[in-house]
Amino acid sequence: MGCFLCCKKKKNIDLNAPLYRETIHPENDINENKNITLTVSEEKPPEKKIIEEEMVNEFKKEEPEESKIEITEKKQNYIIVENTKYSDKGLNLNENIGDDELLLKEDSPLICDYEKGVITFTHNGFINLFNYLWNLDNYKTTYDKEDLTIFLRYEGTPMNSNFYLIKMIYKIKKSDLKYNKDPDSIMDYCYDIKLRMLWDDALKLYERYEGNDNAFIICTWGKSPAFFISERETIEKRFRFSKDNAVYIMSTSIPLEMYEPKEDVVRFVDFLNLFKVSDEGDYIYFTSLNQVDFKMPIPQIIINMTLPNTSKSWYANIKKFANSIIYDRVNKTYERKEEEEDN
């Protein structure tokens, strides 16, 4: 989702209880079978306009037959443009990248061991991964109220079976947005390097190390939510692209040894951050999949209590910011508007 999980002091809560499950099922962890390639058959494209009830119900359906994962040793055939320009670390720096063109070289040092043979770094590969994880079974609905729905999957993902996979749906009425109402602009509010720092007080540093708007390495350093919790950072490889009526941000952590952690900062691992902003008729939908190791024990009761409030606050801040500026996305400029008091 892009926000840091924060928690307030609570009485009678065992802070030593782990975030991850005590019972680990090795068969769910693909780290030991790194040569396995996961492919997902294509799904039928969704209709562009879906009413609110149909959208939520669709996300809650069981995994459709055509989206089930298949295990095969056959490698995909990638479409590689001859003049593709790669950075020293293997980032594809082309401005226009085909759906099956590699966003990251297969031998890039930015790829973590648990990603090898599991994640295909192409646009279609990311969309297939998004759809496959979205339609997995065993999700538990932990919050469903007003404009926000949150699910937890305790079994995790093929990247790691120890940590929860968080699935989230949030929607904003277009009529509640005063100015920019397109997914590209809204995604900029969420993740643009300069715009994010204008509204997100939880961030201490949000810095791009290298790359361009399509593929880059970024450091996200969050302030401590409480005096007894160390500040945390993550350094990720991030990719952005548009498909049909949606804009995607896909990011995962890079190997820890590539950049030394800063002093007094704990580096957490973002196994997965898949974020989508789509135009669905009268609504803008935010859908996300996240799996994070914050490098600290977080009891389930804390997650259940804090995640809805922190998520609602994060999206409320985006909405407030969206209604405070007129944004020219082409020229990357904006005009600040005076904030009006809510009636």
Give a quick rundown of the structure.
The chain is of the alpha+beta class and 343 residues long.
Structure description:
This protein is α+β, with helices and mostly antiparallel strands and 343 residues long. It has one domain (26-41, 50-329): Alpha-D-Glucose-1,6-Bisphosphate, Chain A, domain 4, CATH 3.30.530.20. Helices cover 17% and strands 29% of the residues. The protein has five helices and 14 strands. It has helices at residues 52-60, 123-134, 183-191, 193-199, 300-322, and strands at residues 37-40, 69-72, 140-145, 148-153, 165-173, 203-211, 215-222, 231-243, 246-253, 265-267, 269-280, 283-293, 325-328, 333-336. The strands form three sheets. Strands 3, 4, 5, 6, 7, 8, 9, 10, 11 and 12 form a ten-stranded mixed beta sheet that branches. It has a two-stranded antiparallel ribbon with strand order 1-2. β13 (325-328) and β14 form a beta hairpin. Mean pLDDT is 81; it is low at 5-46, 48-52 and 59-74.
Number of domains as seen in the coordinates: 1
Name the CATH superfamily classification.
Answer: START domain
Q: Largest sheet, if any? A: 10 strands, mixed
Q: SSE string, helix = H, strand = E?
A: EHEHEEEHHEEEEEEEHEE
Kindly report the average pLDDT value. 81
Number-wise, the strands total 14
List keywords for this structure.
343 residues; alpha+beta; Alpha-D-Glucose-1,6-Bisphosphate, Chain A, domain 4; ten-stranded mixed sheet; two-stranded antiparallel sheet; 5 helices; 17% helix
Helices and strands in order:
Elements: E1 37-40, H1 52-60, E2 69-72, H2 123-134, E3 140-145, E4 148-153, E5 165-173, H3 183-191, H4 193-199, E6 203-211, E7 215-222, E8 231-243, E9 246-253, E10 265-267, E11 269-280, E12 283-293, H5 300-322, E13 325-328, E14 333-336
